[in-house]
Design brief:
Blueprint (H helix, E strand, L loop, with lengths): L12 H12 L6 H8 L3 H17 L4 E6 L2 E6 L4 H14 L5 H13 L4
Antiparallel strand pairs: 1-2
Length: 116
């Protein structure tokens, strides 16, 4: 199915793959990386990225596609900033994680403490 015959509310197979890549990527993904990973021509990759960007915008998703100097990245939509910020601060308060070194240090301290 080519992009031109794909309805605007449905992503093509390549568009779905690009969406998945950008969703799990820690840093921006360049167009060249998309071309290499999907084995598609650069023009097709650029067209698919634009189609994904339009899809996210037109369907009112909580995610948006942004172009950065290093490539493309998926971020949360501006409209969701308040709830995302609230969630992140709640998670940080509830789940304070210690480094491996800190856990080892606490284990040594606990082991050497006298038992009463």
């Amino acid at each position: 199915m080519t992009l031109s015959s794909t309805p605007s509310n449905i992503l093509s197979s390549a568009g779905q793959k690009i969406q998945a890549l950008l969703f799990v990527a820690v840093s921006p993904v360049s167009l060249n990386e998309i071309v290499d990973l999907l084995s598609i021509p650069p023009a097709a990759a650029a067209e698919e990225v634009c189609a994904l960007q339009d899809f996210l915008q037109k369907t009112g998703q909580g995610l948006v596609l942004q172009e950065a100097p290093e490539g493309w990245r998926m971020t949360t939509a501006e409209e969701t900033a308040e709830v995302v910020s609230l969630f992140r601060s709640t998670v940080l308060v509830q789940k304070i994680r210690l480094s491996k070194a800190a856990v080892e240090t606490l284990a040594v301290i606990a082991y050497n403490q006298p038992v009463t």
